[in-house]
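User: Hi! I have a protein structure encoded as tokens and I'd like to know what sequence might fold into it. I'm fairly new to this, so please keep things simple.
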């Protein structure tokens, strides 16, 4: 659901001995203190209604005594609508300064279910190793360690990486693999580039030129579009709109406000 909200792009194959370095990328998109606020809407019996809010904040801090990016996403639903649409998700991510992932945690409440996913990353012998911990809705603790030759990301670290992706050379119809893991499985997914469109924010009436992508997941040999999102066509690459296609309906997230951005919003259309 919304925990997939900020999922976006890129799989990098192992070709260097230092996996941590190869899984990283230079950050040119954001700075410490950036805050993005969203409003969330759900289609219920042909009616669109506001069901909650989401806030994402990124800052430079410490993780196990070393410099690291800390990024978290908090979604909160309207308690009055809980009988239709329950949403209480908190996602937390720590990454190296080069954005290679270090730790990920997701705590999610869906209806009466509450569960937790955790991932610790390490890079032994040029590989990418994930130590996974899941707390199921029944309270069971499950542990698993997986080692990959390719770089693997999670819902948050892939978003930070994608913010720094250079789409200037992309052509409409391009497809990019995206390996994203949670505590239970690795998603066989990919990104499809749809081109450019303009989008106007309801809150400020600002209009932005956007890059449009679709996130697909392969399930049983069939590809299903999960999210279609619009990111500003400038150095910041801020998601301003997300269309989410759920098993029980559809939802949308719209950027409501932004502050602490690193570069001028040159994608703004007058």
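Assistant: Happy to help. Inverse folding works backwards from shape to sequence: for each of the 270 positions I chose a residue that suits the local structure. Here it is:
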């Amino acid at each position: 659901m919304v925990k997939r909200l900020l999922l976006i792009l890129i799989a990098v194959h192992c070709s260097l001995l230092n996996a941590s370095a190869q899984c990283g990328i230079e950050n040119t998109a954001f700075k410490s203190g950036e805050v993005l606020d969203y409003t969330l809407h759900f289609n219920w019996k042909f009616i669109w209604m506001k069901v909650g809010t989401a806030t994402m904040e990124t800052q430079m801090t410490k993780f196990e005594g070393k410099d690291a990016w800390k990024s978290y996403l908090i979604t909160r639903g309207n308690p009055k609508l809980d009988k239709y649409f329950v949403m209480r998700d908190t996602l937390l991510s720590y990454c190296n300064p080069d954005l290679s992932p270090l730790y990920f945690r997701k705590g999610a409440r869906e209806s009466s279910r509450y569960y937790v996913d955790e991932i610790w990353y390490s890079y032994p012998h040029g590989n990418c190793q994930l130590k996974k911990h899941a707390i199921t809705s029944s309270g069971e603790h499950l542990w698993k360690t997986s080692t990959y030759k390719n770089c693997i990301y999670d819902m948050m670290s892939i978003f930070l990486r994608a913010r720094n992706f250079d789409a200037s050379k992309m052509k409409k119809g391009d497809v990019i693999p995206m390996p994203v893991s949670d505590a239970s499985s690795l998603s066989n997914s990919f990104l499809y580039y749809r081109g450019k469109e303009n989008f106007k924010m309801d809150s400020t009436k600002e209009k932005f030129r956007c890059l449009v992508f679709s996130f697909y997941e392969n399930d049983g040999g069939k590809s299903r579009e999960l999210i279609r999102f619009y990111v500003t066509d400038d150095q910041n690459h801020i998601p301003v709109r997300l269309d989410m296609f759920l098993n029980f309906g559809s939802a949308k997230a719209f950027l409501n406000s932004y502050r602490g951005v690193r570069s001028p919003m040159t994608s703004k259309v007058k």
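A useful reference point when you look it over: The helical segments are 19-22, 157-162. Feel free to ask if any position seems puzzling.
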